[in-house]
Amino acid sequence: MAGMRKWILSIVVLTTLQATAQDSLWQAANIAYEQGFYKNADSLYTILLNDHGPSAEVYYNLGNTCYKQEDWPRAILNYERCLQIDRRHKDAIFNLELSNTHLRDRIDPIEPSLLHLFWRDLCHLLPSGTWGWITLFFAWSSLGFLLLLLFSKNLSLRKTGLYGMFSAAALTILLLAITYAAHYQEEREQYAIIMQPSLILKSEPSESSTNLFVLHSGLKLRILDSDDSWSLVSMPDGNTGWVQTEALEQI
User: Fold this and answer.
1) Are residues 33 and 65 in contact, defined by beta-carbon separation less than 8 angstroms?
2) pLDDT single digits (tens) 142-163
3) Final residue of a domain: which of 35, 65, 100?
4) Could you list the residue range(s) of the whole structural domain that residue 181 is in?
5) Using N-to-C axis directions, what is the helix angle for 155-187 and 128-151, rounded to 10°?
6) From CA 33, how far away is CA 38, in angstroms rounded?
7) Cα–chain-centroid distance for residue 89?
């Protein structure tokens, strides 16, 4: 019993020390940034991310630090990573748009329809796992209404079961579609930032293939397929081609 108490006490002490160290590192990084020591702040925020995992606020502050150093590709990368965690981070959205004005490539993206925007925002409203639990709830509700319809002897309750079953079933189908779309966007839609000063978009994954476009650092590309050497990417305007994977940093 005494050994168990010591073990629990050790865990509590280690957790407290870790939290204290994380908080101290965060404060030190913020002070370095406020005093204009941007390289030091850059290193401290990077250590925080490496040691304690992803954080929207740390990515945002690191993006600001890169912006102050006029490192536009890394600023964009970190603002994008912040928005992957918190899609409604208004300051990150604003600073990302500001950073993009410094890029050499100005490519007009394909404008999505209002319906597409609505569907995308709806899927982003909750994580796919949460959508899955909501879907499961309505699926069981549909089954419950079916049982009410089949076994109730009260006409009013049977009508409730009928209407409830169809309503819950329709919602289940809709929520299944939302869950799948949200999961697809989380797992399959991958984006990357060009980190090298320039690279050539190729028609095939080969150095001897046709050159399509010259792209420059900071541009965001959608990854359609990838291996260790080459990545098939889509530009904001929908043009596709192959680039060397090492030139990209995945968001």
Assistant:
1) yes
2) 999 999 999 988 999 999 999 9
3) 100
4) 114-187
5) 160
6) 5
7) 12
**Domain end call among 42, 65, 100:** 100
Residue 26 falls within a domain, yes or no? yes
| Model pTM above 0.70 | yes
* 108, part of any domain: no
SS3 197: coil
Residue 180 lies in a domain: yes
Q: Which residues of 63-93 are buried (b: 16+ CB within 10 A; e: fewer)?
A: bbbbbeeebbbbbbbbbbbbbeeeeebeebe
Indicate whether 196 belongs to any domain: yes
Q: What is the CATH number of the domain that holds 63?
A: 1.25.40.10
Query: Whats the size of the chain, residue-wise?
Result: 251
Domain check: are 160 and 171 in the same one? Answer: yes
Contacts of 239 (CB under 8 A, 6+ apart): 201, 212, 213
- What's the pLDDT tens digit per position in 21-79? 788 899 999 999 999 999 999 999 999 999 999 999 999 999 999 999 999 999 999 99
- Quick one: residue 17, left, alpha or beta (phi over 0 = left, psi -120 to 50 = alpha)? alpha
